[in-house]
């Protein structure tokens, strides 16, 4: 079984992991994550789920200052699509061997060219095209503009200059025709789509790509499939989330930003299934929801090997670090643990999905907490309700029940080996 997995699955996972487009998307969103996390924490502080919190700060600082601080963070997320576009061009350009700031500038100008404008000269442009609704087009423009620029550079379309021209000037003019080629392509695209029923690239992407993908991702079946694949691949020594995030991450990122935008302005939060749903309410202690496994190991195991491992890995597991479990028990190629390792996250996903759909727990607000935030605290902060913590406790306990017979069997095996 192990040889077949290494022969068939590992090469496929390696190709997916090393694919330059998927790799660039992962890197781009990972680059933005710390920034979004810090800003989210400031938003959380301003909207802390304690009665009277907002009125306390308003009385202390005054309404004007509180509103100024709040609007500052709203303004940042109104341009999240533009930020995604810029970072996407930078990471993809680097991965395609293009150095310097030029690919990023090409992409930003291409992105701005596609923005629909009013017929009135000098009118304002709505930030709706720069915010969460611009994430998908930001990714696509970042990829396509850099690829067009790279294509034109490889064709060596440049202006022949005499040797008397200084090298610095010559080098800058070398990129003039490739730069102009990319701009021309995007102007043509915008003009053609302006003559169709779509009117703009944004409407085309929104109708044909963004809405179907978000609808597909914003479903219980989608998240069950995500957690199943992520856990199943770990059994064969493949980092499952690295594979699944290549496909799901842009969708979940967009859904999360929708929730965060609504939360900031006090509107109804639209989506159940976001990145916070996956991270906070389906896997506790890391992939396989191994915090439940560790608690069972510490409570019932009698073998020295399991007992020592459980005590060593429990504290890191509370903070979401489960490599000691995955490689220490181990989970990889271990059928006795592999079965619950796959089952528990799927069960948690189904239960959480049903609980949220029945509105027994408020939806996640889109605030990105540090990935090391332990359960109970994360459930409360991500939903603004203590009911989120109750749901987490219930699922951790249920996971313990699922893991129990398998840990018991493994414990007996290890005791015999030790004797």
From TrEMBL:
Record protein name field: Permease IIC component
TM region(s), chain numbering: 32-50, 70-92, 104-122, 128-149, 220-238, 280-300, 312-333, 339-363, 384-406
Membrane topology: Multi-pass membrane protein
Keywords from the UniProt entry: Cell membrane, Membrane, Sugar transport, Transmembrane, Transmembrane helix, Transport
Originating species: Companilactobacillus huachuanensis
Keyword Transmembrane in record: yes
Localization in the cell: Cell membrane
Domain PTS EIIC type-3: start-end pairs: 5-406
InterPro entries per the UniProt record, alphabetical: PTS_EIIC (IPR003352), PTS_EIIC_3 (IPR004501), PTS_IIC_cello (IPR004796), PTS_Sugar-EIIC/EIIB (IPR051088)
Pfam families noted in UniProt: PTS_EIIC
Entry superkingdom: Bacteria
Role noted for this protein: The phosphoenolpyruvate-dependent sugar phosphotransferase system (PTS), a major carbohydrate active -transport system, catalyzes the phosphorylation of incoming sugar substrates concomitant with their translocation across the cell membrane.
């Amino acid at each position: 079984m192990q040889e077949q997995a290494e022969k068939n699955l590992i090469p496929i996972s390696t190709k997916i992991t090393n694919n330059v487009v998927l790799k660039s998307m992962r890197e781009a969103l990972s680059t933005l994550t710390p920034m979004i996390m810090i800003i989210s924490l400031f938003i959380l502080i301003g909207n802390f789920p304690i009665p009277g919190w907002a009125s306390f700060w308003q009385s202390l600082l005054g309404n004007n200052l509180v509103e100024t601080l709040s609007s500052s963070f709203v303004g940042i997320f109104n341009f999240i699509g533009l930020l995604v576009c810029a970072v996407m061009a930078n990471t993809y350009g680097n991965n395609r061997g293009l150095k310097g700031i030029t690919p990023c500038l090409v992409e930003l100008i291409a992105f701005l060219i596609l923005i629909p404008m009013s017929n009135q000269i000098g009118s304002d442009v709505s930030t709706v095209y720069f915010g969460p609704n611009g994430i998908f087009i930001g990714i696509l423009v970042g990829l396509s503009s850099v690829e067009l620029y790279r294509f034109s550079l490889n064709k060596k379309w440049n202006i022949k200059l005499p040797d008397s021209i200084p090298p610095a000037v010559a080098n800058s003019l070398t990129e003039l025709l490739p730069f102009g080629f990319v701009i021309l392509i995007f102007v043509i695209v915008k003009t053609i789509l302006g003559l169709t029923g779509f009117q703009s690239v944004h409407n085309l992407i929104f109708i044909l790509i963004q809405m179907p993908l978000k609808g597909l991702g914003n479903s219980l079946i989608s998240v069950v499939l995500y957690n199943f694949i992520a856990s199943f691949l770990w059994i064969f020594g493949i980092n499952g989330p690295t594979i699944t995030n290549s496909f799901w991450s842009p969708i979940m990122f967009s859904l999360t930003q929708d929730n965060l935008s609504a939360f900031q302005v006090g509107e109804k939060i639209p989506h159940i299934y976001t990145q916070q749903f996956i991270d906070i309410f389906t896997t506790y202690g890391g992939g396989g929801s191994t915090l439940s496994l560790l608690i069972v190991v510490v409570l019932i195991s009698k073998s020295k090997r399991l007992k020592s491992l459980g005590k060593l890995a429990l504290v890191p597991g509370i903070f979401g670090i489960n490599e000691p479990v995955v490689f220490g028990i181990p989970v990889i190629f271990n059928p006795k643990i592999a079965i619950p390792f796959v089952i528990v996250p799927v069960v948690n996903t189904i239960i959480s999905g049903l609980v949220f759909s029945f509105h027994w727990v408020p939806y996640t607000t889109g605030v990105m907490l540090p990935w090391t935030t332990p359960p109970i605290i994360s459930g409360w902060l991500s939903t603004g309700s203590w009911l989120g913590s109750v749901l987490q406790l219930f699922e951790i306990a249920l996971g313990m029940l699922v893991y129990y017979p398998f840990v018991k069997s493994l414990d007996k095996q290890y005791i015999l080996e030790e004797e």
